[in-house]
Write a structure and sequence with these properties.
Blueprint (H helix, E strand, L loop, with lengths): L12 E4 L2 E4 L5 H17 L5 E3 L4 E3 L1
């Protein structure tokens, strides 16, 4: 859809399980919770790893 210029990278939609759905806005409570989860994951991850919540995994 991006190649056909129907959507751009700035459109607030995402592809989930074969469906194109509106992406929700991230408000302050969401950002705080995300930061806390990331810090909690990093506190138990091996040294040198970071939590990348955008792809839901820990990466070296």
């Amino acid at each position: 859809m991006t190649r056909s210029e129907i959507l751009t990278e700035n459109d607030a939609v995402e592809w989930l399980d074969g469906w194109l759905v509106p992406r929700t806005a991230k408000n302050r409570p969401h950002r705080i919770a995300t930061r806390r989860v990331r810090k909690a994951l990093e506190s138990v991850a091996p040294v040198g790893w970071i939590a990348c919540l955008c792809v839901r995994q820990l990466v070296p």
